[in-house]
Amino acid sequence: MIKVAAGRRKDIDGSASVPCFYGSELRFQREKEGLSMERTVEGSFYGATYLSEIERGHRRMPLDLARHVDRVLGTDGFFERRCEDVRKAKQGAHASYFTPIVEAETRACVIQEWADALLPGLLQTKAYAHAIINSTHSLDLQEEAEAKVRDRLARANLFANPKRPEYWVILHESLIHHPLLPPTEMAEQLDHIAALTRRRRIVPQILPWNPATQAFMELSLMFLDFDDEPPLVYTEGPYHGQILDDPALVKLYRKAYDRLRAAALPPEASLAMIERAAEDYRNANEPR
């Protein structure tokens, strides 16, 4: 047996939520066996930091890790059985494939996005979010649609922190010039992006149409970098999403993102274009 290292730590309130209850039970069972986090994850594909996030209720446990923990701790399938409960509890109104990204955003130190078809969820106003959800989930009841909108807007609480995460976004110019909303609401949406920019919470760049970037027009990208975790890439369509963490693939997509950024307008010119378009929509004109 390996003794658990002594030291100060934060207690887990298991009554706070289902994930916290799950995490507190994990810590209890691990320490009952006298195992460190390093020894507990030994032989799995995960690190001690990952397990620590689960114990604190900040991260869901993947099914393969739950099975590994059950074997190591002799818990007779308990953590595997409770995985689904935790996943549902953390999911809220988000799609199941997107829930890990919502969790990861809160831990990221840098977020970078390429948006080709829709403005990113972190930047959307209520009207823009409603328009998307009403289009892609037309059979939702009103309360279901409202829950989706509410959870999407809540993600933007990240920007309440004046320094973290650092957020960069490349927007294709069609998102500015081909409005999804009526002129007044589109002006408010662009004003919102401009306000975040002037608060120095985001750095937007507009990518004019360019044949060299045509290959990436069907693919949105989100990159998440962390202090003590490997980086992730996330891409999605209207009804699916995929998380990529293979280092070779992450490297390839990051090079592609760098090429998009090199072809985009500088941040200052991009902000000017966004504000000019907002003013045009306010005056019921076509954006210049």
TrEMBL record:
Residues 100-276 form the DUF5753 domain. It comes from the Bacteria. This is Helix-turn-helix transcriptional regulator. It comes from Streptomyces coeruleoprunus.
